[in-house]
Amino acid sequence: MAHTDHANIGLESSDIKKISDILQKYLATEIALNLKIRNYHWNVEGAMFRDLHLFFEELYDAGAQYADEVAERIRMLGEHTHASMEEYVKMTIISEEKNITLPAMDMLSNLLKDTEVIIQEMRKDIDVVGKCGDQGTEDFLTALIQKHEKDGWMIRSLCKNK
Length: 162
What we know:
The protein is about 75% helix and about 0% strand. With about 160 residues, it is mainly alpha-helical.
């Protein structure tokens, strides 16, 4: 359970809790996505091995940064981040990858689907955050959507290489 020591930043405690819960969901999701990408990085095979191995490395490096930024945003609100895999598994909005022998194109397809799910969910949550009056987190989530949109574009472009 996250500890609360809300910042005095002009938001109601109940709104900070609501916003923090939204951000905790994205922290869990970024961590789950990062693990999935690392799995793909380690296990990709085939004609596009080198290109995809390097691409997946770029994605998981960026994803680690995304997770760090989400965690720091939670802390800016005076909340503590969740810290257990059990909590992350419960909160993530994407599915876990258990198959380590997927064809490369299936890996890309899965990542594209996950990226699109994240973007769609964030768009909904921006409205919730906006109703709480937290322009900082609204802007933060908008910037994070843009990063995921760029990742999605890159993945979609690679999917056309079938």
